[in-house]
Amino acid sequence: MCVYFTAKNMKLFRSYRWIPMAFVLACLTFFGSLLIQCPSSVNAVQKPEQVILNTTNTIALIWYWPFGMSYNLGANICHDLFEIPNCILVEDRSRFSEADFVIFHHRELSNGQQKLPVHLTRPQKQRWVWFSQECPENNLNMKPLAGHFNFTMSYRLDADITAPSGRLVPQNFGTGLTVEEFIPKDKSSLACWVVSNFSPHHKRTAVYNKLKTIIPVDVYGGAVNKRLDDKTLLPTISRCYFYLAFENSISRDYITEKFWYNALVGGAVPVVLGPPREQYEAVAPKDSFIHVDDFSSVEDLGEFLRKLAEDKQRYASYFNWRLKYTVEPNMWIKRTCEFCSKVSSLQTHKVYKDLDAWQRE
């Protein structure tokens, strides 16, 4: 076994000022002898080529803001907020010729609010990023985009930049916490659903119409003219044992804020209707949600929810994930910063000839 010392290791040794220098020198001598005894392993690490660190900045240009919602990028938001070096986010279009990659949000392209800058001379090094968090059914006017984009930014796990509506982040809470501390105490409703688009053609509508005949479901949102604002949304959901995280489209990896924010952050167990269970399990523990497809009928689902709410211990088990994780909401700007470090490793000449085909795979 060979041990290699790096600059980071040396910095770590220097940070422990209480370690006698004689001990440090002895360690260096010992590990140095190991290096001499293992020349073949050292050569293996150096091949096929020596890694050279790139210390230059990568510039990402946001050509326009999604939905018109702008953010203060500051001088170096990637470093200041996320401790990600060598990545500069800008919104000044005059820096187009400097940009290593340019991000275009699809919604504004599809409705004609924005256009691709095809009239500008595009630097040879520059890569364009197609950004969308909508399901394929909502991404219209895809054909004019063929051949322009090098990278995709999407909720899809196989996108070049995966930017989901949320994700679980490991968290060390220490000892002494119990699951019960994460479960809201004032639960008074069995199930609730917040919906703005109530279409009779959606699968979720058919499931809801059956489920409401079996258990009580409190419905909120524009579809029933009972809107919840930012201050009342989560407190309302926290009073429900279960939240119907029903997606309006069944698409690969399409798991929206209904699951991440409304249910998990809101403190209710999500009952999901969307992609298959294994795609949920790819991003969340299998015992953190209930999938509609696990039941042979909606009647069986309703009876299961009723009995589960009465079994306090079993119900609490659906919150075990809270002892290990926190929910990080959609932070596509952070995903963009993280992408900077990956640009050099991606295919430099890749071009998406048919974005619509890709999103429907």
Automatic annotation (TrEMBL):
The keyword Transferase applies. It is a single-pass type II membrane protein. Residues 185-358 form the Fucosyltransferase C-terminal domain. Keywords: Endoplasmic reticulum, Glycoprotein, Glycosyltransferase, Golgi apparatus, Membrane, Signal-anchor, Transferase, Transmembrane, Transmembrane helix. It is an enzyme of class 2 (transferase). GO terms for molecular function: alpha-(1->3)-fucosyltransferase activity; peptide-O-fucosyltransferase activity. InterPro entries: Glyco_tran_10_C, Glyco_tran_10_N, Glyco_trans_10. The keyword Cytoplasm does not apply. GO terms for cellular component: endoplasmic reticulum membrane; Golgi cisterna membrane. Pathway: Protein modification; protein glycosylation. It is found in: Endoplasmic reticulum membrane; Golgi apparatus, Golgi stack membrane. Its EC number is 2.4.1.-. Residues 57-164 form the Fucosyltransferase N-terminal domain. It catalyses: L-seryl-[protein] + GDP-beta-L-fucose = 3-O-(alpha-L-fucosyl)-L-seryl-[protein] + GDP + H(+); L-threonyl-[protein] + GDP-beta-L-fucose = 3-O-(alpha-L-fucosyl)-L-threonyl-[protein] + GDP + H(+). Protein O-fucosyltransferase that specifically catalyzes O-fucosylation of serine or threonine residues in EMI domains of target proteins. Attaches fucose through an O-glycosidic linkage. O-fucosylation of EMI domain-containing proteins may be required for facilitating protein folding and secretion. Belongs to the glycosyltransferase 10 family. This is Fucosyltransferase.
